[in-house]
Design a protein that fits this description.
homodimer; 250 residues; 10-stranded mixed beta sheet; globular
């Protein structure tokens, strides 16, 4: 049996998804709960690595119990996991998939959301869950960010938006949408693509914020992409504002 | 000088508003920050006591520096406090008021919000900030709660909705509104009154939830008020779902 889980987690107290010795990771916590639940060793495979502090609203992973007899009806899994997982992680949904389904390679589109609290005053209820950005960005700034976001959309070599030192050789990705919305004093930036380079969303956000506060002309974003020069793009926005929102399979 | 502050705090790690020896309270934390800010002892007076774990979106308190020379422009206070307060508390706004203004006695209306997560599955992002209530309450249940809420409105003796053991002799209060709204799987219950008895909102919520899941007929709420019998009302909903939302002065 191979189960595909949809998982939400508050990334604040996790060192990202992937197993690391002596570190609290999401993969380790889900594996431990799965082993207890299915009463056997389980192989847990994620749709992507996430960095320390990054959150998830709809992370996907598969759980494959080594003991083929260990069958639990998929619709019972969210509630069953809820009594085994700590409070900063939840299984929202579960379904069965074929044995050879791989939650990373089967991905067609991944969507991230980035949340910016545009305020000089901190908000006690969103600490560690937004990036607080004090420089005021008005309605005009949001419009500029939307113009800039249009340059991000489409198929480009995104080397300029990849953490320097990455070993990826093919940096061409297709961004399906890049939306900027403001609700109250929170700016939501949603980016969907067929794949992302390391830190790509966070560098896009850092660059769009430079555009928002008037530091960078929107048209410059097109030129930065063409330059393939990481140093021309904005700084990397912090992990705490980033949410893996959705993964779409065939 | 006498300043009136509007304060938001996440109550999770506070033992309520009021000073208590050896305990972390909101009053103690604001007093400490104020003493530093004004470089003198400050008298800090709150609009109400709040229980351990209760949150605030718009708590009010006055800050009166003992040294009359210690004058800071009120509009500078929110930012000035932000560098002195811990991350679970913020000053949202400040104004000057007359020396004899008392944030408790001058209150005309106080509004509380109670948040119920109506879900069998926990949400990692609202732990400690909602009361998770697994019994499903559908649209029909919400309608029943609204009918019941109408009985709460108006001027009544609310002895049945007061924590047993309270020493209050006059339990007559005027509830100005009691609204029930559902957004996704969160039920918001907003109650405004000229004053509240101890645990009154939390007992109202416990009772409305009994109505919502069909345990109690909406009309019974009128009879429970008339009975003045605490044992007939529902249980006290936990502190973690309660927010002091707004205080209205003349």
């Amino acid at each position: 049996m191979n189960y595909l889980l949809t998982v939400a987690f508050d990334g604040k107290n996790f060192c990202g998804w992937q197993f690391q010795p002596e570190k609290r990771t999401v993969q380790a916590v889900i594996t431990e709960a799965s082993n207890k639940l299915f009463k056997c060793k389980c192989a847990v495979t994620g749709c992507s690595r996430t960095d320390s502090g990054v959150h998830a609203l709809g992370f996907r992973c598969t759980v494959k119990p080594e003991n083929g007899d260990a069958v639990i009806s998929a619709d019972k899994l969210p509630l069953a996991y809820s009594s085994l997982l700590p409070e900063d992680i939840s299984v929202l949904a579960a379904e069965t998939v074929s044995d050879d389904f791989h939650p990373r390679y089967a991905t067609i589109t991944k969507e991230y959301e980035y949340r910016v609290l545009n305020s000089r005053i901190p908000d006690p209820f969103s600490v560690g869950r937004v990036f607080r950005y004090p420089a005021p960005i008005g309605e005009e700034g949001i419009e500029r960010m939307r113009v800039a976001a249009e340059y991000i959309c489409g198929t480009h070599d995104f080397t300029a938006f990849m953490a320097s030192g990455s070993k990826i050789t093919d940096a061409v990705r297709t961004v399906k949408f890049c939306r900027v919305e403001r609700v109250g004093n929170v700016i939501y930036i949603n980016v969907a693509a067929d794949g992302f380079l390391y830190n790509m969303v966070r560098i896009i956000v850092g660059t769009l914020l430079d555009v928002g506060r008037g530091e960078l002309a929107p048209e410059r974003v097109g030129e930065i992409i063409s330059s393939r020069n990481r140093r021309l793009a904005g700084s990397t926005a912090p992990a705490c504002g980033l949410y893996l929102k959705n993964v779409i399979y065939e």
